[in-house]
Amino acid sequence: MFSSRAWVSLSLALVLSAADKPSAAASRRYAVLVGRTAGPLELYAASELRKYLRSIYGLDAPLENAPGADCDGYLIVGGPESNPETSAALAGAWPKVSEQGIVLKRVSLGGKPALVLGGGSPAATLWAVYEFVQGAGVQFLLENDVLPARPAPFPPERLDVVEEPQLHFRSYRGINDLPTSLVFYGVEDYHHLIDQLAKMKFNVFYVNTYPFQPFVDYEFRGQNKTTGVLDYGWKLVIHSDTIGKELFGSRKEMVNPEFAGATTYRERVQAASGLLHEIFRYAHSRGMKVGLMFLINQFPIEFNRRLPEWSDRKYLSPEIIKGAVSIRLGASEEGVDRASFPELTPDNPVVMDLNRTIVRAHIESYPEADYYGLYQPELPRSSDEYRQIWSRLDKKYHLQPEFDLDRMMESARTHTQPVGVRQGTRPQEELKTSIAYADTLDKLINEDQIIAKSVNPHATLVVSTFSDEFYPVLAKIFKGTAIQQVEMDYLSSLAAQRTEMLAFAAKTPMKVEVMASMADDNIGILPQLPTPSLDRIFRAMKSYHVDGFLGRQFLVTKLEAATAYVARSAWSDVTPDDVYRSQIAGVCGEASVPEMLSAYHVIERASLKGDEVAMGFLFPVPTMMQKHWTATDGPRPGWDALRDYYREALPLVLTARSKSRPEGYSYLDQLAGQLRFAIGYIEAVQEVRRARLTYESARKAFEAKDSTGYGERMEETDRQLSEALALLKDAVGNWAAEVRDPSDLGALAALNTFCWDYLKGVAHQVYLESQMWEMPL
Predict the structure, then answer these.
(1) Rounded to 5 degrees, what angle do the CA atoms 653, 659, 665 make?
(2) What is the pLDDT of residue 20?
(3) pLDDT at 660
C-alpha cells in the first residue's frame, strides 16, 4: 500500500533530527497550561505545541491546568472562555476577535514570562499555535514539516499578534475524478493531508463526487444504482514492464487502498462510504468544516437509459441535438446523450423526482456535512426552452428590468476568450444552461425545502454556474438560503483577465466563494505555477469583499508554492515572491533563494505559455498519447517553446540544490524531476507526431505503388517510434523517481497505461507492417 506512512516517517525524521541540537531553552522549565474545561481541539493544540517545543528547542514542557512554583515560564493555550489563566495573564483585556481571529501575546503570569496562544474558537486556538510554530521557523509543506536550521529565540522577546483572516472560507478539494486527483488517497493519506492543511489554516475540506462513483446508493422507480467505480472505471494495469513498478508494491492494478478486495458494487459502496465518513470525521477533529459537492441533472447510465421509458413525452425537440457533442469517459456519459437528452428538463417531473432522490441520498448518507454543493454538469446542455424558464423565474422573483435577458445574451455573445469557458458560443450555452439549472434548484430548495426538511436542516447550500452573466442573478432567487461558488475559468491566467466580473460580490447579499485553480487537468502534470494570476485574482477578491475561495488542484506535493500562496494570501497581503522567498529560505536555506526565485519566475512564464499552447496536451485520459499518434499536423512549435522554458529552469533548480541544506533536497528534487519529465515528454510527443507524418507519407507511397519509398518510410517510422519510446521511457522514469503521494502514483499509472503501453503497441504494429508487406504493382 502506498500511503501516508511514507510521508509521516519522513516528516518525523526531519522533526526529530533537530531534537539533539543544544538549546538554552532546554535547560529551563516551561509548562503548557490548558483550562480544565478545554475541549478535544484545544487539547490537541496543546499536544501539538508540546511536540514542536520538543522538536525545535529540545524543551519538554509538561501539560498543566494551573501555574506551578517550579516553572520558569508558561505557554497558555486557549481563549478566556476555556482557560482562566488567559484572563489572568491579560488582566481581563482579551482582544475583540471573531471566531477565526488569533491572539499571540507575550505577558507575565505570577511574575514569570508567559505566552498566550489563543483564538476566538478552538480552531483558531489551533491556528494560533501553528502561527507560533511558524514564527519559530518551521515550514509547513504538504509533503512534510521542515525544521529551521536556526530557530527563533525562545521565548520571543516580543510577541503581539491579533489577526483576522482577510478571506474567511479557505478550502481544499479531495476525492474528485481523474488519476492525478485525490481519488487514490486512502485514509492515512487523507489524515496526513488534513493535518498539513490545518497547519496552513485552511478551514474547509470539501470533496467533489460524481454520479458514476460509489459514494451513494439509491433506487428510483425500481431501478437500482449499479454504477460505482473510481477513476471512471479505467483499469490502470501494473505488469512486469511498468516503469516504476516497485512503487506499486504487489498490486496488479492501481486502486485506492481502501478498495483493495472490493470487487462487487456493494463492497465498493461500503468502502467508499467508510472512506468519506472518516475524511469528514478527521477534518472536523482538526477544526475544519466539510463539504460534499455532487451533480444534479447528470445521472448514471442505468438511469439515463430508462428516462425515455419513464417520461410521458419528449420535452425537447431532437433537432436541438444537432451539433452537440456526446462524450463517453469510461463509466460516465458526458455532454449530450441522444437517448436521454430530450427528457432532461426541469419541466419533466421524472427528472425532478430523480434529482430529489439523488439529493436526499447524499444528505441522508452524509448528514455530518456542513455544506452540500448541488452542481450543474460541467459541459453545458442548453435548449431553446430557456426563454420560457426565464419568464417563469422572472414572474416569481422579478428579475427584470435589473437583469435583461437580451442584454445578458448579447454580453455572452460578445465577451469571449480564445480558450476556456468563454470560448466561442460556450458563454451563450452556459447562460441558457444556468437558467435551467436555477429553475431546478428553485424547485428543490425553495419549493420543496429539500435541505430544510432533511436530516441535516442547518447545512449550507453551495450553488454554482459557469456563466459570468448569471452569477448576479442567483442572489435574487436564493438570497439567504445559499452561498455562491464562482467558477471564473479552468485556467487562472484566463480568470485573471476578467476579475472585474467579481464586482457583483460587493453588492450581493450572498456570500461569494471563488474557485482558485492552483493547477488545471487540461495542462496535466506539466509544471504549473499560476501564482501571479492567483495574486491578481486574490487582490480583486479582497477589493470586492469576496468571502473566500474553493481550492482546485490536481496533484498535491508538486504544488507547494501555489498552495502556500493561497494559504498566506488569505490572511495578509503578500506577493508571490514574498511566499517563494519565505518557503525557499525556510526549506532549503538562504543560499538557494536567488536561483530558485529565478527558476520560479521562469516556470511562471512557462505556465502562461502552457495555458496558451498546451490546453489538453497532457489531459490524463485514455487518449493522452493516442491523440498525438493519430494527429496529422506534425510537431507543434509552441510545445518546443514551452519545453525551452523548462530547459531554462532546470539548471537553476540544480544550482539551488547544490547550495541547499539536506532538508531541502526533496523539495528541489521534486521540481527538478518534474522539469526533466516535462522536457522528455514533450520531446517524445513531438517525435511521435513526426513519426505519424512519415507513416502518412509511407501510406501515400503505397497508394502510388512506390515500393522503395514505402519500405524506406516504414523503416523510418519504425526508427522514429523507437526514438519516441526511448524518450518516453526516460521521461516517465524521471516522474517515477519523484513520486511522493498517491496522486503522483496515479499519474505514473496513467502514464504507463495510456502512454507507455499504448505507444509500445503502436511501435510493434508499425514494426510488423514494415517487416512483411505485399504491394500489387
Answers:
(1) 65
(2) 41
(3) 98
Give the Cα separation of 721 and 699 in Å (integer): 16
Q: Rounded to whole angstroms, how far apart are CA atoms 408 and 473?
A: 11
Q: Are 690 and 633 in contact (CB under 8 A)?
A: no
| CA nearest to 89, candidates 101, 74, 68, 99 | 74
End-to-end CA distance of the chain: 59
State pLDDT tens for residues 279-322: 999 999 999 999 999 999 999 999 999 999 999 988 877 777 77
3-state class (DSSP) for residue 173? strand
- In the chain, helix, strand, coil percent, each to 5? 50, 10, 35
**Whether 125 contacts 41, CB under 8 Å:** yes
DSSP 153: P
268 neighbors 214 (Cβ within 8 angstroms):
yes
Residue 472 has pLDDT above 80, yes or no: yes
Instruction: Using a pLDDT cut of 70, give the percent of the chain over it.
Output: 96
Alpha helices per DSSP H over 614-664? 626-630, 637-659
Euclidean distance between CA atoms 143 and 155, whole angstroms: 28
C-alpha–C-alpha distance, residues 79 and 95, integer Å: 10
Tell me which H or E stretch contains 431: helix 426-441
Find out whether 229 and 330 touch, Cβ atoms under 8 Å: yes
pLDDT-derived band at 623 (thresholds 50, 70, 90) equals very high
Residue 169 near residue 513, CB atoms below 8 Å: yes
Q: Distance (Å, rounded) from C-alpha 742 to C-alpha 431?
A: 37
Task: List phi, psi (to 5°) of 291.
Answer: -130, 140
Do 567 and 130 contact (CB within 8 A), yes or no?
no
pLDDT in tens, 685-728: 999 999 999 999 999 999 999 999 999 999 999 999 999 999 99
Task: Determine the average pLDDT of the residues in 485-514.
Answer: 95
The model carries a pTM of 0.96
- DSSP class per residue in 186-226: -HHHHHHHHHHHHHTT--EEEEE--TTSSS---EETTEEP-
Q: Which residue has the cell 533536497?
A: 665
Q: State whether residue 733 is helix, strand or coil.
A: helix
Give yes or no for a contact between 115 and 74, defined as CB atoms under 8 angstroms apart. Answer: yes
Cα 461 to Cα 371: distance, rounded to the nearest angstrom? 6
Task: Give dist(CA 683, CA 723) in Å, integer.
Answer: 10
Cβ atoms of residues 211 and 337 within 8 Å = no
pLDDT of residue 27: 72
CA-closest candidate to residue 205, choices 216, 217, 196, 215: 196
Closest C-alpha to 100, from 288, 265, 233: 288
**H-helix or E-strand containing 64?**
strand 63-64
Runs of H (alpha helix) within 222-264: none
Which residue(s) pair with 515 in the sheet? 550
CB 421 within 8 A of CB 490: yes
